[in-house]
Amino acid sequence: xxxxxxxxxxxxxxxxxxxxxxxxxxxxxxxxxxxxxxxxxxxxxxxxxxxxxxxxxxxxxxxxxxxxxxxxxxxxxxxxxxxxxxxxxxxxxxxxxxxxxxxxxxxxxxxxxxxxxxxxxxxxxxxxxxxxxxxxxxxxxxxxxxxxxxxxxxxxxxxxxxxxxxxxxxxxxxxxxxxxxxxxxxxxxxxxxxxxxxxxxxxxxxxxxxxxxxxxxxxxxxxxxxxxxxxxxxxx
Length: 236
Fold this sequence. Notes:
9 helices, 2 domains, Glutathione S-transferase Yfyf (Class Pi), Chain A, domain 2, transferase activity, 8% strand, globular
């Protein structure tokens, strides 16, 4: 049995999707990020960085793993699935996993901050991060031109990238001119395990472009977390 500590974010959904795909038994623990539950001492004992997601593998002497990419690799190696055993196949998957960890996630995260969360609209910053996100989307689209999935067969690389790219509307970036990416988004999104994974916990706004009351409430909550984090850094 695995304990999953998570929230309704792309990084959190990476792990719930993987657990569903790998058919591993787990207990879901949803943290209240707006209340800074992820900074509580009990959770810092699991993840010293104070971020979600994190897991505790009860079947492996309560072994704790943090960082979503590291968790994906751990789960894939634990089950022998979604990560090839041969050196070249494994490397291809890890390359596209690192592409998400070092590119897609950070750029979309910054696009969200400046496009959705900051009260001041700093257009040069918005343009910068939305533009870089779109460039990275084009890289994915090119890879998917001749490949059904990013590293050949469906893998943890697809899970990691899809969990973020599916939220492109929230970041204000369209994919209308990227047919290969659109095809892949639908193919991955149609998988039953993926559908179950993004519902644990459900994300009510990140997959749409609406700016309604619900979206405004979510954005305000994220803004409060940013301001709290900056305040704590200032006291450090």
